[in-house]
Design a protein that fits this description.
Chain lengths: 377, 377
């Protein structure tokens, strides 16, 4: 289901089979939190070269609910996307969105951020929801400690994460044949990925990786990073994990990151990324371009009648000037959210495509150096 | 510059020449207030059969300012639209948006709703701004009395409106040759339209129409309607005006209206419409369909997996269900604004296209009857 086709230093070009087609790694997943990319259609994601999107189990469970999505024929049909979907387990949102949460051995109790109702999420429930959604890549439920938790807390949390990973796998194996929602066109079944935790402690990262590999998953994520720690710590934790993951399984660095973060992590052997940055920053007029970050509110752009990024062929860059995009942003126009998001997603997807091309031509290091030379963050 | 090609009862099919191409009447103008349709691109407007859009002088004057738009090469280039643009004079927004306004013989002083600064708009200034924007159809500055003003006020207001119309025309004739912004591809110059006022008084409407025709304009608008009066009053005022307007000039009912309003007004000889209804209502989940209004928030649609309008071939209706559109709307997704607006604009533009077809085939009355039979408002 996963083949590394080529390496350039430690950067890997791979092919991942999913129930909704095969996709090339390294890839970036635009985020369709509640079953929609903020402001873009799925056709646009496809046209921009998007191969796979990420949806959030936590949000979809709260609204409209996995039963409704199942009744609609699954998430692919509901949101009009025939490519693969990765769903997270909801664990991270319980940690980041819910003000009240109680961690128990059996699962996690939390209050909905929408209506305050109490919800109990177990490892089995997290898998069941994702199966009902019809996900192609299902994530185990994990516990994500904050960046500043002490070692004792992280050790305890890690124990729970490993126990839950085992329970998720057991449940997944029992139910995978029933996962009728996921209409596989190619005989490939949904995948289950484990999530390495261990906080900012290299030896706990190693322990977590080894325990998960012992259980055995279709792929391995590195979770609990990009939670406020310095970039160097993120890279160090990645380095402390990757050597203990199997060569023949995809590696997914969750919630990462900036263009620099992605390049540094691909260099360390990571294959998969997701992040809210391109979509969220777009809504704040924070634009990613080949020359670095452009902040649209800046007065400099008031009468700048050049395109946002001269090296970009997206609809936004081909048809509008920075002066117009600034005007839309300042005026709070809905079209601003749309055009900005379109460009930022186009930028990220092109970066991934360029990365794959560079690995294929065994010049990843040169590509990275050249890219960062021009890029002012 | 305007030819009536065919009539069906009093409904007219016509051809209007503009500096940005010829367009068929009756038409509806989607509103690009600040130089953008809320959530849609101009390419989409064109694909949906949009022939002309309306932009607001008041908004563009305040932000980004007509000088910037002129520097950008005119509004067409700024907002990426090569079809005709009609701009209003700003008079209506001074009346509806500014809390403080002082009417003077020379013009109107008002406070910007954006930053509270004092702005003085004269008939000449209104024309100058529209010329700098590069408008294809320029509107005179008028004074729009509220629906409940007494006759004495309306008489006084009408006197001012006629005086201002004269001044607008004088200024327009002096400056039209300098209007370099409007790059005519076909030798056609920008048009100047007069605006009939007169409140809810039929004989003042007649007087206003006659005075304006005496001055002589390229087209005639009926203003000051759709300001809260009952539909029957709107139709009566239209009937009190149309007979005094020349047959060979286009007639524009400003700010109107619902699908019923449009049908009733075409029947009374109106050729041009604009209204915020399709775009604004879309943002409130109030959808226009061939079967009538659909309010997306209704629980009925929670698990309704049929298209919004089975008789619509827009992107929204072809790709999504009511259940999904409801989910997006309830969740406050940006994509909801976009997909809803796309459909409502598609609906209005198709209605106009169907109206033109019915007139051409001399079956307007039957078309109107059939449409309203199916339409539940």
């Amino acid at each position: 289901m996963f083949n590394v086709l080529q390496k350039s230093s430690k950067a890997r070009l791979g092919l991942l089979q999913t129930a909704h087609g095969e996709i090339q790694t390294p890839f970036f997943m635009p985020i369709a939190t509640s079953g929609a990319i903020k402001g873009l259609t799925m056709e646009e994601i496809k046209e921009l070269g998007g191969q796979i999107v990420l949806s959030n189990t936590y949000h979809l469970h709260l609204r409209p609910g996995e039963d409704l999505v199942e009744k609609a024929g699954g998430l692919h049909k509901f949101m009009n996307w025939d490519g693969p979907i990765l769903t997270d387990s909801g664990g991270y949102q319980v940690f980041s969105l819910s003000k009240i949460r109680k961690l128990k051995a059996d699962g996690v109790e939390f209050q909905s951020h929408l209506d305050g109702s109490t919800i109990f999420l177990t490892p089995e429930k997290a898998i069941e929801i994702q199966m009902k959604l019809g996900s192609d890549i299902i994530m185990v439920l994990d516990e994500c400690p904050g960046a500043n938790e002490d070692r004792k807390y992280v050790e305890k949390s890690l124990k729970l994460t490993t126990e839950w990973a085992t329970r998720c796998q057991t449940f997944f194996n029992e139910k995978r044949r029933d996962a009728l929602q996921c209409v596989s066109t190619n005989g490939v079944e949904p995948h289950l990925f484990g999530i390495v935790q261990g906080g900012m402690h290299p030896n706990l990262r190693k322990q977590s990786a080894e325990e998960l590999v012992e259980i055995g998953f279709d792929g391995y994520a590195i979770g609990g990073l990009s939670v406020g720690e310095p970039n160097e710590v993120m890279y160090k934790m990645t380095e402390a994990t990757v050597p203990y993951l199997p060569e023949d399984k995809p590696r997914y660095l969750m919630g990462v990151g900036t263009p620099e973060n992605i390049l540094e992590s691909v260099e360390r052997g990571i294959d998969m990324f997701d992040c809210v940055l391109p979509t969220r920053n777009a809504r704040h007029g924070h634009m990613f371009t080949s020359q670095g970050v452009v902040r649209l509110k800046r007065a400099d752009y008031k009468d700048d009648f050049t395109p946002l990024d001269p090296n970009c062929d997206c609809h936004t860059c081909k048809n509008y000037t920075k002066a117009y995009l600034r005007h839309l942003f300042i005026s709070g126009e809905i079209l601003s959210l749309r055009l900005n998001t379109l460009h930022n997603v186009a930028f990220y997807l092109r970066l991934m495509s360029d990365i794959r091309k560079a690995i294929k031509e065994d010049r990843f290091d040169e590509f990275k150096e050249e890219f960062l030379k021009n890029y002012v963050s």
